[in-house]
Amino acid sequence: MLRSPRHHTRHDPMVEPPALPAPQRGRPVPRTALLIHPFYAKDPGGSYGKHVLTPATTFPALAAATPGEWTVSMWDENLLQGPPPTDEVPAVVGITVHLTFARRAMALARWYRARGSLVVMGGLHVQACPDELAPVADALSFGNGVGTWPQILRDAEAGSLQPRYHAPFEGFAKEPAPDRSILPPWAYLTPSSVVATRGCHNRCGFCFLSTKNLHVPRENRPVADVLRELEASPTGYGVFIDNNLGSDPEYLLSLCRALESRDLIWSAAVSLDVTDRPALVRAMALAGCTGVFIGFESLTDSNLQRAGKRCPPAEDYARRVTVFHDVGIQVNASFVLGFDHDTQDVFQQVAHWVERERLECATYHILTPYPGTPMFRQLEREGRLLHKDWSRYDTGHCVYQPRHMSPTQLEEGYAWLYRRTFSASSIWRRRPRDPLAAAPYLAQAWLYKKNNALWARLIRSRQVHRAWAPLVEIQRRRHLAFRADLRQRTTPSEPGQVAA
Protein backbone atom coordinates (compact mmCIF):
# COMPACT_ATOMS: atom_id res chain seq x y z
CA MET A 1 0.00 0.00 0.00
CA LEU A 2 2.74 2.50 0.95
CA ARG A 3 4.49 2.56 -2.42
CA SER A 4 6.95 5.31 -3.22
CA PRO A 5 5.87 7.64 -6.06
CA ARG A 6 9.25 9.35 -6.35
CA HIS A 7 9.64 9.60 -10.10
CA HIS A 8 11.31 12.97 -10.56
CA THR A 9 10.93 14.20 -14.10
CA ARG A 10 14.42 14.61 -15.50
CA HIS A 11 13.81 18.07 -16.93
CA ASP A 12 11.27 19.30 -14.40
CA PRO A 13 12.19 23.00 -13.92
CA MET A 14 10.89 22.82 -10.35
CA VAL A 15 13.40 20.09 -9.51
CA GLU A 16 16.53 20.90 -11.54
CA PRO A 17 18.32 24.28 -11.22
CA PRO A 18 19.15 26.33 -14.31
CA ALA A 19 22.66 25.90 -15.69
CA LEU A 20 25.11 28.71 -14.99
CA PRO A 21 27.00 30.01 -18.04
CA ALA A 22 30.78 30.24 -17.95
CA PRO A 23 31.67 33.30 -15.83
CA GLN A 24 33.02 36.31 -17.72
CA ARG A 25 34.99 38.70 -15.58
CA GLY A 26 33.91 42.32 -15.86
CA ARG A 27 34.10 45.69 -14.17
CA PRO A 28 31.66 45.92 -11.22
CA VAL A 29 29.17 48.76 -11.42
CA PRO A 30 29.74 51.02 -8.39
CA ARG A 31 27.02 51.18 -5.74
CA THR A 32 24.96 48.35 -7.19
CA ALA A 33 23.79 45.40 -5.14
CA LEU A 34 22.00 42.24 -6.24
CA LEU A 35 20.13 39.99 -3.80
CA ILE A 36 19.93 36.33 -4.82
CA HIS A 37 17.55 33.61 -3.65
CA PRO A 38 19.15 30.37 -4.88
CA PHE A 39 17.19 27.59 -6.52
CA TYR A 40 16.01 24.68 -4.39
CA ALA A 41 14.38 21.45 -5.57
CA LYS A 42 10.64 21.12 -4.91
CA ASP A 43 9.00 17.85 -3.90
CA PRO A 44 6.83 16.62 -6.81
CA GLY A 45 4.66 14.84 -4.25
CA GLY A 46 3.64 18.14 -2.68
CA SER A 47 2.15 21.28 -4.18
CA TYR A 48 4.36 23.44 -6.37
CA GLY A 49 1.92 26.26 -5.78
CA LYS A 50 2.88 26.76 -2.15
CA HIS A 51 6.30 28.05 -3.22
CA VAL A 52 4.84 31.16 -4.86
CA LEU A 53 1.94 32.00 -2.56
CA THR A 54 3.80 34.87 -0.93
CA PRO A 55 7.43 36.08 -0.82
CA ALA A 56 9.79 35.98 2.12
CA THR A 57 10.31 39.40 3.67
CA THR A 58 14.12 39.17 3.65
CA PHE A 59 14.74 41.04 0.41
CA PRO A 60 12.12 43.79 0.91
CA ALA A 61 13.58 44.33 4.40
CA LEU A 62 17.12 44.58 3.05
CA ALA A 63 15.95 46.88 0.24
CA ALA A 64 14.47 49.21 2.85
CA ALA A 65 17.77 49.20 4.76
CA THR A 66 19.88 49.91 1.64
CA PRO A 67 21.54 53.38 1.68
CA GLY A 68 19.86 55.79 -0.71
CA GLU A 69 22.91 56.20 -2.94
CA TRP A 70 22.90 52.48 -3.76
CA THR A 71 20.75 50.68 -6.35
CA VAL A 72 19.47 47.30 -5.22
CA SER A 73 17.64 44.58 -7.15
CA MET A 74 16.78 40.93 -6.61
CA TRP A 75 16.78 37.65 -8.51
CA ASP A 76 14.86 34.61 -7.29
CA GLU A 77 15.90 31.53 -9.25
CA ASN A 78 12.71 29.78 -8.11
CA LEU A 79 10.62 32.02 -10.34
CA LEU A 80 11.91 30.02 -13.32
CA GLN A 81 13.29 32.94 -15.30
CA GLY A 82 16.64 31.21 -15.77
CA PRO A 83 20.04 31.85 -14.16
CA PRO A 84 20.86 35.32 -12.81
CA PRO A 85 21.30 38.04 -15.45
CA THR A 86 24.74 38.65 -16.91
CA ASP A 87 24.26 42.11 -18.46
CA GLU A 88 26.29 43.81 -15.73
CA VAL A 89 28.49 42.91 -12.77
CA PRO A 90 27.06 44.07 -9.42
CA ALA A 91 29.50 45.54 -6.94
CA VAL A 92 27.98 43.45 -4.13
CA VAL A 93 25.95 40.26 -4.31
CA GLY A 94 23.99 39.17 -1.24
CA ILE A 95 22.99 35.50 -1.12
CA THR A 96 20.58 34.06 1.42
CA VAL A 97 21.54 30.52 2.45
CA HIS A 98 19.42 27.68 3.83
CA LEU A 99 20.92 24.24 4.23
CA THR A 100 18.77 22.66 1.50
CA PHE A 101 20.20 24.97 -1.14
CA ALA A 102 23.63 25.57 0.40
CA ARG A 103 25.34 23.76 -2.50
CA ARG A 104 23.61 26.00 -5.06
CA ALA A 105 24.37 29.11 -2.98
CA MET A 106 28.05 28.19 -2.90
CA ALA A 107 28.08 27.64 -6.68
CA LEU A 108 26.52 31.07 -7.20
CA ALA A 109 29.04 32.63 -4.82
CA ARG A 110 31.98 31.18 -6.77
CA TRP A 111 30.40 32.28 -10.05
CA TYR A 112 29.91 35.89 -8.96
CA ARG A 113 33.35 36.16 -7.41
CA ALA A 114 34.82 34.91 -10.68
CA ARG A 115 32.94 37.74 -12.42
CA GLY A 116 34.39 40.35 -10.03
CA SER A 117 31.62 40.89 -7.47
CA LEU A 118 32.01 40.92 -3.70
CA VAL A 119 29.83 38.18 -2.22
CA VAL A 120 28.06 38.42 1.14
CA MET A 121 26.20 35.42 2.54
CA GLY A 122 23.59 35.41 5.31
CA GLY A 123 20.80 33.24 6.62
CA LEU A 124 20.33 30.25 8.89
CA HIS A 125 23.04 28.12 7.30
CA VAL A 126 25.57 30.87 7.96
CA GLN A 127 24.52 30.76 11.60
CA ALA A 128 24.80 26.97 11.81
CA CYS A 129 27.78 26.20 9.52
CA PRO A 130 29.87 29.36 9.00
CA ASP A 131 33.16 27.53 8.39
CA GLU A 132 31.60 25.71 5.46
CA LEU A 133 30.64 28.96 3.71
CA ALA A 134 33.56 31.22 4.61
CA PRO A 135 35.87 29.97 1.80
CA VAL A 136 33.41 31.04 -0.94
CA ALA A 137 32.29 34.38 0.53
CA ASP A 138 33.95 37.76 1.03
CA ALA A 139 31.81 38.37 4.12
CA LEU A 140 29.32 36.51 6.31
CA SER A 141 26.36 38.19 8.02
CA PHE A 142 25.18 36.76 11.35
CA GLY A 143 21.90 37.57 13.04
CA ASN A 144 19.71 40.40 11.80
CA GLY A 145 20.64 41.31 8.22
CA VAL A 146 18.76 44.61 8.46
CA GLY A 147 21.31 45.64 11.05
CA THR A 148 24.42 44.52 9.15
CA TRP A 149 23.52 45.35 5.53
CA PRO A 150 24.06 49.16 5.53
CA GLN A 151 27.51 48.80 7.13
CA ILE A 152 28.45 46.00 4.74
CA LEU A 153 27.70 48.25 1.75
CA ARG A 154 29.59 51.20 3.22
CA ASP A 155 32.63 49.02 3.93
CA ALA A 156 32.47 47.42 0.49
CA GLU A 157 32.54 50.85 -1.16
CA ALA A 158 35.42 51.96 1.04
CA GLY A 159 37.42 48.81 0.31
CA SER A 160 37.37 47.76 3.96
CA LEU A 161 34.94 44.83 3.93
CA GLN A 162 35.27 42.67 7.06
CA PRO A 163 34.98 38.86 7.01
CA ARG A 164 32.14 38.76 9.54
CA TYR A 165 29.32 41.06 10.63
CA HIS A 166 26.97 40.59 13.57
CA ALA A 167 23.70 42.29 14.55
CA PRO A 168 21.19 41.20 17.20
CA PHE A 169 17.47 40.69 16.61
CA GLU A 170 16.48 43.73 18.65
CA GLY A 171 14.51 46.89 18.02
CA PHE A 172 12.03 45.26 15.65
CA ALA A 173 9.57 48.14 16.04
CA LYS A 174 12.16 50.65 14.82
CA GLU A 175 13.09 48.85 11.62
CA PRO A 176 11.99 50.48 8.35
CA ALA A 177 8.90 49.12 6.60
CA PRO A 178 9.77 46.58 3.89
CA ASP A 179 10.30 48.01 0.42
CA ARG A 180 8.17 45.75 -1.79
CA SER A 181 9.02 47.65 -4.95
CA ILE A 182 11.90 45.20 -5.28
CA LEU A 183 9.45 42.33 -5.87
CA PRO A 184 8.19 41.41 -9.36
CA PRO A 185 4.43 42.16 -9.36
CA TRP A 186 3.53 39.03 -11.37
CA ALA A 187 5.28 36.47 -9.21
CA TYR A 188 3.08 35.73 -6.20
CA LEU A 189 -0.52 35.22 -5.18
CA THR A 190 0.00 38.26 -2.97
CA PRO A 191 3.14 40.31 -2.34
CA SER A 192 1.80 41.24 1.09
CA SER A 193 3.73 38.92 3.37
CA VAL A 194 3.80 40.68 6.71
CA VAL A 195 5.70 40.08 9.94
CA ALA A 196 4.00 41.55 13.01
CA THR A 197 5.84 39.63 15.72
CA ARG A 198 9.17 37.92 16.22
CA GLY A 199 9.99 34.86 18.25
CA CYS A 200 7.83 32.11 19.71
CA HIS A 201 6.93 31.01 23.24
CA ASN A 202 7.82 27.43 22.27
CA ARG A 203 11.39 26.18 21.91
CA CYS A 204 10.94 22.92 20.01
CA GLY A 205 14.10 20.86 19.66
CA PHE A 206 13.61 20.36 15.91
CA CYS A 207 12.78 23.99 15.05
CA PHE A 208 15.28 26.35 13.42
CA LEU A 209 14.60 28.87 16.21
CA SER A 210 16.50 26.54 18.55
CA THR A 211 19.69 26.79 16.44
CA LYS A 212 22.78 27.26 18.59
CA ASN A 213 23.71 30.92 19.22
CA LEU A 214 20.52 32.14 17.53
CA HIS A 215 18.56 34.36 19.88
CA VAL A 216 15.32 35.81 18.54
CA PRO A 217 13.50 37.57 21.40
CA ARG A 218 9.75 37.96 21.30
CA GLU A 219 8.90 41.41 19.98
CA ASN A 220 5.79 43.06 18.55
CA ARG A 221 5.55 45.81 15.95
CA PRO A 222 3.17 48.72 16.48
CA VAL A 223 -0.28 47.72 15.26
CA ALA A 224 -0.60 50.94 13.23
CA ASP A 225 2.53 50.03 11.23
CA VAL A 226 1.22 46.56 10.49
CA LEU A 227 -2.12 47.99 9.44
CA ARG A 228 -0.49 50.36 6.96
CA GLU A 229 1.36 47.46 5.33
CA LEU A 230 -1.79 45.39 4.94
CA GLU A 231 -3.84 48.28 3.59
CA ALA A 232 -1.24 48.76 0.87
CA SER A 233 -1.90 45.25 -0.45
CA PRO A 234 -2.98 45.29 -4.10
CA THR A 235 -5.05 42.14 -3.53
CA GLY A 236 -6.84 42.83 -0.25
CA TYR A 237 -5.17 39.68 1.07
CA GLY A 238 -2.19 39.48 3.41
CA VAL A 239 -0.22 36.60 4.85
CA PHE A 240 1.38 36.89 8.27
CA ILE A 241 4.58 34.86 8.10
CA ASP A 242 5.36 35.20 11.79
CA ASN A 243 6.57 32.05 13.49
CA ASN A 244 3.55 32.29 15.76
CA LEU A 245 1.20 35.27 15.54
CA GLY A 246 -0.57 34.02 18.64
CA SER A 247 2.43 34.01 21.00
CA ASP A 248 1.08 37.17 22.63
CA PRO A 249 -2.74 36.80 22.79
CA GLU A 250 -3.32 40.38 23.93
CA TYR A 251 -1.31 41.74 21.01
CA LEU A 252 -3.22 39.51 18.59
CA LEU A 253 -6.49 40.79 20.03
CA SER A 254 -5.45 44.42 19.58
CA LEU A 255 -4.42 43.66 16.00
CA CYS A 256 -7.78 42.03 15.32
CA ARG A 257 -9.69 44.97 16.72
CA ALA A 258 -7.78 47.30 14.40
CA LEU A 259 -8.43 45.08 11.38
CA GLU A 260 -12.12 44.45 12.02
CA SER A 261 -13.26 47.61 10.27
CA ARG A 262 -11.12 46.91 7.18
CA ASP A 263 -12.31 44.89 4.21
CA LEU A 264 -9.20 42.72 4.21
CA ILE A 265 -8.63 39.00 4.53
CA TRP A 266 -5.53 37.31 5.89
CA SER A 267 -4.01 34.07 7.12
CA ALA A 268 -1.36 33.30 9.73
CA ALA A 269 0.55 30.64 11.60
CA VAL A 270 -0.62 30.31 15.20
CA SER A 271 -0.23 27.71 17.91
CA LEU A 272 -3.21 25.62 18.91
CA ASP A 273 -3.40 27.17 22.36
CA VAL A 274 -5.06 30.30 20.93
CA THR A 275 -8.22 28.19 21.20
CA ASP A 276 -7.92 28.51 24.99
CA ARG A 277 -9.86 31.69 24.29
CA PRO A 278 -12.64 31.02 21.77
CA ALA A 279 -13.57 34.69 21.88
CA LEU A 280 -10.11 35.53 20.54
CA VAL A 281 -10.56 33.07 17.67
CA ARG A 282 -13.91 34.71 16.90
CA ALA A 283 -12.19 38.10 16.92
CA MET A 284 -9.72 36.74 14.36
CA ALA A 285 -12.57 35.71 12.07
CA LEU A 286 -14.29 39.08 12.42
CA ALA A 287 -10.99 40.76 11.57
CA GLY A 288 -10.69 38.87 8.28
CA CYS A 289 -8.78 35.70 9.17
CA THR A 290 -9.73 32.99 6.66
CA GLY A 291 -7.12 30.35 7.48
CA VAL A 292 -4.50 29.32 10.01
CA PHE A 293 -1.39 27.15 9.77
CA ILE A 294 -0.96 25.08 12.94
CA GLY A 295 1.89 22.81 13.93
CA PHE A 296 0.04 19.85 15.43
CA GLU A 297 3.26 17.89 14.76
CA SER A 298 2.05 14.57 16.20
CA LEU A 299 -1.00 12.72 17.51
CA THR A 300 1.19 11.14 20.22
CA ASP A 301 1.79 13.21 23.35
CA SER A 302 5.09 11.50 24.19
CA ASN A 303 6.53 12.69 20.86
CA LEU A 304 5.62 16.28 21.65
CA GLN A 305 7.02 16.10 25.16
CA ARG A 306 10.32 14.69 23.95
CA ALA A 307 10.58 17.46 21.33
CA GLY A 308 9.99 20.12 23.99
CA LYS A 309 6.77 21.42 22.42
CA ARG A 310 4.27 22.88 24.85
CA CYS A 311 0.78 22.37 23.48
CA PRO A 312 -2.62 20.93 24.43
CA PRO A 313 -2.94 17.12 24.65
CA ALA A 314 -3.55 15.36 21.35
CA GLU A 315 -6.88 13.99 22.54
CA ASP A 316 -8.15 17.59 22.63
CA TYR A 317 -7.05 18.48 19.09
CA ALA A 318 -10.38 17.71 17.45
CA ARG A 319 -12.38 19.93 19.81
CA ARG A 320 -9.98 22.79 19.23
CA VAL A 321 -10.18 22.43 15.44
CA THR A 322 -13.94 22.88 15.81
CA VAL A 323 -13.32 26.24 17.51
CA PHE A 324 -11.80 27.48 14.24
CA HIS A 325 -14.34 25.83 11.97
CA ASP A 326 -17.27 27.25 13.94
CA VAL A 327 -16.23 30.76 12.91
CA GLY A 328 -15.31 29.93 9.32
CA ILE A 329 -11.52 29.69 9.70
CA GLN A 330 -9.90 26.94 7.65
CA VAL A 331 -7.06 24.89 9.13
CA ASN A 332 -3.83 23.81 7.47
CA ALA A 333 -2.42 21.15 9.81
CA SER A 334 1.32 20.49 9.90
CA PHE A 335 2.58 17.06 10.97
CA VAL A 336 6.12 15.79 11.52
CA LEU A 337 6.70 12.11 10.80
CA GLY A 338 9.40 9.89 12.26
CA PHE A 339 9.49 10.80 15.94
CA ASP A 340 10.88 8.11 18.21
CA HIS A 341 7.40 6.94 19.24
CA ASP A 342 6.13 6.71 15.66
CA THR A 343 5.56 3.25 14.21
CA GLN A 344 4.53 2.26 10.71
CA ASP A 345 0.85 2.80 11.47
CA VAL A 346 1.41 6.55 12.03
CA PHE A 347 0.70 7.33 8.36
CA GLN A 348 -2.76 5.79 8.33
CA GLN A 349 -3.55 7.28 11.75
CA VAL A 350 -2.74 10.79 10.54
CA ALA A 351 -4.60 10.34 7.24
CA HIS A 352 -7.71 9.09 9.03
CA TRP A 353 -7.64 11.90 11.58
CA VAL A 354 -7.14 14.64 8.95
CA GLU A 355 -10.14 13.36 6.99
CA ARG A 356 -12.34 12.74 10.00
CA GLU A 357 -11.82 16.29 11.26
CA ARG A 358 -12.27 17.73 7.74
CA LEU A 359 -9.04 19.67 7.75
CA GLU A 360 -8.99 21.74 4.60
CA CYS A 361 -5.26 21.26 4.09
CA ALA A 362 -2.41 19.28 5.64
CA THR A 363 1.34 19.65 5.31
CA TYR A 364 3.71 16.81 6.12
CA HIS A 365 7.40 16.79 7.01
CA ILE A 366 9.84 14.01 7.69
CA LEU A 367 11.60 14.83 10.95
CA THR A 368 14.73 16.70 9.90
CA PRO A 369 17.54 17.52 12.35
CA TYR A 370 18.73 20.95 11.28
CA PRO A 371 22.41 21.61 12.05
CA GLY A 372 22.88 23.50 15.29
CA THR A 373 19.58 22.39 16.85
CA PRO A 374 19.20 20.15 19.94
CA MET A 375 17.66 17.46 17.72
CA PHE A 376 20.74 17.41 15.48
CA ARG A 377 23.12 17.17 18.43
CA GLN A 378 21.06 14.37 20.00
CA LEU A 379 20.96 12.23 16.86
CA GLU A 380 24.65 12.88 16.21
CA ARG A 381 25.52 11.69 19.74
CA GLU A 382 23.42 8.58 19.21
CA GLY A 383 25.15 7.83 15.91
CA ARG A 384 21.84 7.92 14.02
CA LEU A 385 22.66 10.52 11.35
CA LEU A 386 22.97 8.82 7.97
CA HIS A 387 24.91 11.59 6.20
CA LYS A 388 25.39 15.36 5.99
CA ASP A 389 24.27 15.94 2.43
CA TRP A 390 22.39 19.16 3.23
CA SER A 391 20.47 19.08 -0.06
CA ARG A 392 18.50 16.13 1.34
CA TYR A 393 17.73 17.86 4.66
CA ASP A 394 14.54 19.13 3.04
CA THR A 395 11.87 17.39 5.21
CA GLY A 396 11.11 15.13 2.24
CA HIS A 397 14.01 12.71 2.75
CA CYS A 398 14.98 10.65 5.78
CA VAL A 399 18.51 11.60 6.89
CA TYR A 400 18.67 9.63 10.16
CA GLN A 401 17.81 6.16 11.44
CA PRO A 402 14.24 6.11 12.85
CA ARG A 403 13.50 3.98 15.93
CA HIS A 404 10.66 1.82 14.64
CA MET A 405 11.00 1.71 10.85
CA SER A 406 13.60 1.91 8.12
CA PRO A 407 14.46 5.18 6.36
CA THR A 408 12.85 3.80 3.20
CA GLN A 409 9.63 2.96 5.04
CA LEU A 410 9.50 6.49 6.46
CA GLU A 411 10.00 8.07 3.04
CA GLU A 412 7.40 5.82 1.43
CA GLY A 413 4.89 6.52 4.20
CA TYR A 414 5.43 10.25 3.82
CA ALA A 415 4.90 10.00 0.04
CA TRP A 416 1.78 7.87 0.53
CA LEU A 417 0.32 10.45 2.93
CA TYR A 418 0.66 13.21 0.35
CA ARG A 419 -0.86 11.01 -2.35
CA ARG A 420 -3.76 10.22 -0.08
CA THR A 421 -4.34 13.81 1.08
CA PHE A 422 -4.13 15.21 -2.45
CA SER A 423 -6.44 12.57 -3.90
CA ALA A 424 -9.83 13.66 -5.21
CA SER A 425 -11.62 11.38 -2.73
CA SER A 426 -9.81 12.86 0.27
CA ILE A 427 -10.36 16.43 -0.92
CA TRP A 428 -14.07 15.65 -1.24
CA ARG A 429 -14.30 14.02 2.21
CA ARG A 430 -12.69 17.07 3.81
CA ARG A 431 -14.95 19.67 2.20
CA PRO A 432 -16.52 22.20 4.60
CA ARG A 433 -19.96 21.34 5.90
CA ASP A 434 -21.20 24.80 4.89
CA PRO A 435 -22.36 24.41 1.25
CA LEU A 436 -21.45 28.03 0.50
CA ALA A 437 -17.88 27.40 1.61
CA ALA A 438 -17.55 24.03 -0.12
CA ALA A 439 -17.46 25.28 -3.71
CA PRO A 440 -14.58 27.80 -3.22
CA TYR A 441 -12.69 25.19 -1.19
CA LEU A 442 -13.01 22.57 -3.92
CA ALA A 443 -11.93 25.03 -6.63
CA GLN A 444 -8.88 26.18 -4.71
CA ALA A 445 -7.96 22.64 -3.65
CA TRP A 446 -8.06 21.50 -7.26
CA LEU A 447 -5.79 24.34 -8.41
CA TYR A 448 -3.46 24.20 -5.42
CA LYS A 449 -3.02 20.44 -4.99
CA LYS A 450 -3.77 18.73 -8.28
CA ASN A 451 -1.96 20.77 -10.91
CA ASN A 452 1.81 20.81 -10.51
CA ALA A 453 2.35 20.91 -14.28
CA LEU A 454 0.05 23.93 -14.49
CA TRP A 455 1.92 25.64 -11.65
CA ALA A 456 5.24 25.28 -13.45
CA ARG A 457 3.72 26.89 -16.55
CA LEU A 458 2.12 29.71 -14.56
CA ILE A 459 5.38 30.51 -12.79
CA ARG A 460 7.51 30.43 -15.90
CA SER A 461 5.04 32.53 -17.93
CA ARG A 462 4.64 35.11 -15.13
CA GLN A 463 0.93 34.40 -14.70
CA VAL A 464 0.72 33.37 -11.02
CA HIS A 465 -0.76 36.60 -9.74
CA ARG A 466 -3.12 36.96 -12.69
CA ALA A 467 -4.42 33.40 -12.28
CA TRP A 468 -5.01 33.67 -8.55
CA ALA A 469 -6.31 37.24 -8.26
CA PRO A 470 -9.94 36.47 -9.30
CA LEU A 471 -10.17 33.58 -6.81
CA VAL A 472 -8.75 35.73 -4.04
CA GLU A 473 -11.29 38.46 -4.75
CA ILE A 474 -14.16 35.95 -4.71
CA GLN A 475 -12.89 34.63 -1.40
CA ARG A 476 -12.61 38.14 0.02
CA ARG A 477 -16.16 39.10 -0.95
CA ARG A 478 -17.55 35.82 0.35
CA HIS A 479 -15.78 36.34 3.65
CA LEU A 480 -17.09 39.89 4.00
CA ALA A 481 -20.62 38.51 3.72
CA PHE A 482 -19.78 35.76 6.19
CA ARG A 483 -18.37 38.28 8.68
CA ALA A 484 -21.55 40.34 8.49
CA ASP A 485 -23.52 37.21 9.39
CA LEU A 486 -21.06 36.26 12.14
CA ARG A 487 -21.47 39.64 13.79
CA GLN A 488 -25.18 38.92 14.21
CA ARG A 489 -24.49 35.79 16.22
CA THR A 490 -24.42 36.29 19.96
CA THR A 491 -21.63 34.38 21.64
CA PRO A 492 -21.32 34.99 25.39
CA SER A 493 -17.81 35.44 26.71
CA GLU A 494 -16.51 32.61 28.83
CA PRO A 495 -15.08 33.18 32.30
CA GLY A 496 -11.68 34.80 32.12
CA GLN A 497 -11.97 35.53 28.42
CA VAL A 498 -12.12 38.73 26.46
CA ALA A 499 -15.21 39.57 24.46
CA ALA A 500 -14.82 39.59 20.72
Any overview of this molecule?
This protein is α/β, with parallel strands linked by helices and 500 residues long. The chain folds into two domains: 28-172, Response regulator (Rossmann fold, 3-Layer(aba) Sandwich); 190-488, tm_1862 like domain (pyruvate-formate lyase- activating enzyme, Alpha-Beta Horseshoe), CATH 3.80.30.20. The protein contains 17 helices and 14 strands. Helix 7 links the parallel strand 10 and strand 11. Helix 6 (223-231) packs across helix 7 (249-259).
Keywords:
alpha/beta; Rossmann fold; globular; disordered C terminus; disordered N terminus; pyruvate-formate lyase- activating enzyme; 500 residues
Whole-angstrom Rg: 23 Å
In the CATH hierarchy, what is the class of the largest domain?
A: Alpha Beta
Percent helix: 25-40%
| CATH architecture group name of the largest domain | Alpha-Beta Horseshoe
Largest sheet composition: 6 strands, parallel
Strand content: 15-25%
- What is the total domain count? 2
At the fourth CATH level, what is the homologous superfamily of the largest domain? tm_1862 like domain
Identify the strand order in the major beta sheet.
Answer: 2-1-3-4-5-6
Count the DSSP helices: 17
Structural class: alpha/beta
| Terminal CA distance | 47 Å
CATH topology of the largest domain: pyruvate-formate lyase- activating enzyme
Low-confidence stretches: 1-9, 492-500
